Amino acid sequence: MRRLTPLMVCFIALASAMAQSPQKSAAQTRLRALELEAAGLRRTLLGAAQSPDGPEAASPAGALLALQEGNERFVRGLRIRSQMGALDPGAREALAKGQAPFAVIITCSDSRLADNFIFDQELGRLFTIREAGNAPDLQGLASAEYAVEHLGSRIIVVLGHESCGAVKAVQEAGPTPLPGNLWSLQAAMAGLLDSVPRGGESAGAHLSHLVEANARRQAESVLARSPLLLERCAKGSLSVVPAVYDLATGKVRFLPAVVPGHGEKTGGHS
Ligand SMILES: [Zn+2]
User: Which residues form a coiled coil (predicted)?
Assistant: First the structure.
């Protein structure tokens, strides 16, 4: 049986999208998205992974747009890039020669988060750092610096998520030290509880506010602890963006990028 090439699989997905859509305009939108992704995949298979020239590699804005578009495909059940990369041996062989991830994703270890799916990106496109509570320690910070300095990444997304168990543990413990090494989560989120008073809201609503604040504070902390990354941001060649992932909808809500020199003195490991 003849092996399916990535473009053949893309064509099948395209035909499927058109057949399943009840409305012509929706089908046309999917068609256009699939065409664009087919073009992107073609570039990858021709070796662009080693010398990226797409808009996502050219600027922080281009990188952010690529992540936003990929998340939109994920939310709508129209993943393409993350399916292709896993299926095609040719892409893996090309990537074995080098990597040029356009984005660094700092996110939680939660098993329900998989950034290649969430942003619909194939192998070699995302440089991922995962620690509970999306609170990078020194090695995590060094990993981000490596990706930016040596691999050319244009954006760092600090991705928190709703119902985060790490943030919830810190919330519920309050001033009481958590057992084992879990105390380090409290250290990494020092000041978080004071920054978001609960007031009269429910524990669940408070947790949502804490999750968002933690993503923002950890993003600020990344710049506060890394002169290298701060310099790249000041020059405009890098952007550090906090975001929150909704487990149920799959939607990523991007928050305003951290502005160098403003507010990057909070949270994070010391
Ligand atoms: Zn979590």
Answer: none
Q: Look at the chain and report how many structural domains it folds into.
A: 1
Annotated binding-site residues for Zn(2+) read 108, 110, 161, 164
Domain that holds residue 226: 53-254
In a domain, residue 27? The reply is: no
CA–centroid distance, residue 26 to ligand 1 (Å): 34
Tens digits of residue pLDDT in 50-76: 445 588 888 999 999 999 999 999 999
Ligand 1: centre distance to CA 75 (Å): 20
Reduce the DSSP state of residue 137 to 3 states and report it. Answer: coil
CATH code, 128: 3.40.1050.10
Nearest by Cα to 106 from 51, 169, 153: 153
**High-pLDDT (> 90) share of the chain, %:** 67
Is residue 23 assigned to a domain? no
CA of residue 166 to ligand 1 center, whole Å: 5
**Which residue type sits at 16?**
S
Q: What's the whole-model pTM score?
A: 0.80
Query: How far, in Å, is the centroid of ligand 1 from the Cα of 231?
Result: 29
